[in-house]
Amino acid sequence: MEKQLMEQEIQQSNVSLNLYDTKAARIEDQLRFCSDQIQKLGDNKNQSSVCLENAQRRLSDIRPSSQQVRDTVGEVQSKITSSRVTCMELEVELDKERFDKKKVEEDLEVAKRNLSRLKAQDEDSSVTDKLQQELGEYREIVKCSICRDRTKEVIFYCNLSYLIKFVKPQLVLESINDGMWLSLS
């Protein structure tokens, strides 16, 4: 029995040994995998370092031109702002000119209406002037031929007219009887 026990112990030891060998093989595989990973990470680190150096060189090359671009953008923005202000000022000026033009057009329309009214009045006034002239002529006709002052009181058929004070009373009576004169008074 001792032999059996020993055999069992040996068997258990062999099983344990196999188990430990398997575990050792696994650990070795894991160690190889980790070593590979470490080597890959090292390679990646080197590549990343090279890329980082290249990127830093490009960045240092780009920085001055980037600053120039920023300055240019600032100048362009200030020009845009001043252009907008100028554009707004021009729009205000255009609105003022449109308003002034509209006002001038309205004033012109008023002037045209006034001109039409004045022409109508002028036509009326020319008629009035003609009538005034005729009235003056008639007044001239009825003024005394001697004193040229007062309105005539007596008009003879021969188109002579005088104030009654200038005509002899005898002549008046004869003329009345003959029907040769007209009295305006």
From TrEMBL:
<feature type="coiled-coil region">
    <location>
        <begin position="87"/>
        <end position="121"/>
    </location>
</feature>
<keyword id="KW-0862">Zinc</keyword>
<comment type="similarity">
    <text>Belongs to the BRE1 family.</text>
</comment>
<dbReference type="InterPro" id="IPR013956">
    <property type="entry name" value="E3_ubiquit_lig_Bre1"/>
</dbReference>
<keyword id="KW-0808">Transferase</keyword>
<keyword id="KW-0539">Nucleus</keyword>
<keyword id="KW-0156">Chromatin regulator</keyword>
<dbReference type="GO" id="GO:0033503">
    <property type="term" value="C:HULC complex"/>
</dbReference>
<protein>
    <recommendedName>
        <fullName>E3 ubiquitin protein ligase</fullName>
        <ecNumber>2.3.2.27</ecNumber>
    </recommendedName>
</protein>
<keyword id="KW-0479">Metal-binding</keyword>
<keyword id="KW-0863">Zinc-finger</keyword>
<dbReference type="GO" id="GO:0005634">
    <property type="term" value="C:nucleus"/>
</dbReference>
<dbReference type="GO" id="GO:0008270">
    <property type="term" value="F:zinc ion binding"/>
</dbReference>
<keyword id="KW-0175">Coiled coil</keyword>
<comment type="pathway">
    <text>Protein modification; protein ubiquitination.</text>
</comment>
<dbReference type="GO" id="GO:0016567">
    <property type="term" value="P:protein ubiquitination"/>
</dbReference>
<dbReference type="GO" id="GO:0061630">
    <property type="term" value="F:ubiquitin protein ligase activity"/>
</dbReference>
<keyword id="KW-0833">Ubl conjugation pathway</keyword>
<dbReference type="GO" id="GO:0006325">
    <property type="term" value="P:chromatin organization"/>
</dbReference>
